[in-house]
Amino acid sequence: MSDLYVAAGGGGDPIGALIAARTVTVDPAPPLIATYAWERPEVDPTARPLGRRDFTGLTREAGATAFASATRARPPAGSTMPGLARDLPARLLLLDPARGLTSLSRQIETMAEAAGGRIRVIDVGGDVLTHGDEPTLRSPFGDALTLAACRLAGVPTTVYVAGPGLDGEIDERLLLERLTGRHPLTPGPDAASAAGPALAWHPSEASALWAAAVHGARGTVRTVHRTVRLTSVSPRLYHLPLREAVDHNPVARALLDERPATLEAAADLSHRLTGIPGLAPERDRAPGDHALAGSAALLDRERAMKTLREAADGADHVTLRYAARALDLPWTAIPSVREALGGDTPLLRLT
What is the pLDDT of residues 256-282, one digit of tens each? Predict the structure, then answer.
């Protein structure tokens, strides 16, 4: 018997889910992690959650569709899931929300039954506890959809908030108020090190920040969207019952009330409540198509570090994703940037 871990928001959350799994259980077996294939547009230009038809080389496990190292996204779609299947010591299952809330809840229920255990929802940063009106909130929809689907599935579920505030969406102080009375866990360095091979190339920032905090990093970090502070709270992993998490989240409650039958209808509902489009792509500047990952190997270290220090505006560290972008390189250049500039996974220290 094992637990089903659900990476609440897709993207890099499977990395955080692995670190959490290594923290809450002593089971050495690779954990079962369910995740959306839903990534930022610089990875996937379709800017939508991908389903079975968007991949080749998928397998079956725990009654569900699973990723393997041989899995590939069908162009024009792109995905980091095959790389995570290769580099994370975990079994990754695909969550497909295209048919709305009820279908998603049945997928989760089937996976949990096959695992034979309970559900543990992992959110890195804490926007799963959004009230919908925080001024820095950017992407509440995916996490709310996950909460509602788990509640509808009816399987005993615990929600975990890893690294409060590290996704830059809700302030650490606000989250600690919402987690009052909860006794946190703190991962050991070995738990974070298990994600090291993936963090060496993956563009995740929140999971990278959490791993860095577990390894002892402190101070300010410039990310793509804003500057985040690593504090003594940053390594912590808080947990609370699913019911309490849903009580915090107005989008999750509305989804449970209305039971939208399509992803688009669910996203529209979230948009009406928060003013944030649920399926709109990021509107960030990205490197031009002319940028080549290999060009990072030709970086002049002194000049590149000067550029990063100026762009970081006094921060102690930058994420590797931010470093690549500031140097006008694509996210696929992250390993080369790290090698050329001597960065320690998963951050580059500037001071």
Answer: 999 999 999 999 999 999 999 998 755
Residue labelled with tokens 């995905």? 79
Q: Which two tokens stand for residue 195?
A: 């994600």
The position carrying tokens 């006094």 is 314
The tally of CA atoms less than 13 A away on the side-chain side of residue 73 is 22
For the stretch 319-342, pLDDT in tens is 999 999 999 999 999 999 998 888
Q: How far is 351 from 348, CA to CA, in rounded Å?
A: 10
Strand partners, 221: 228, 317
**Residues 163/234, Cβ–Cβ less than 8 Å:** yes
Single-letter amino acid, residue 185: L
From 1, 236, 36, 314, select the one nearest 149 (Cα to Cα).
Answer: 36
| Residue 149 φ/ψ, nearest 5 degrees | -65, -40
Q: Where are the alpha helices (DSSP H) in the chain?
A: 13-24, 81-87, 101-115, 141-153, 172-178, 189-193, 196-199, 206-214, 242-248, 250-258, 263-274, 301-312, 320-326, 334-341
- Alpha-carbon distances of 302 from 282, 298, 308, 350, rounded to whole Å: 31, 12, 10, 11
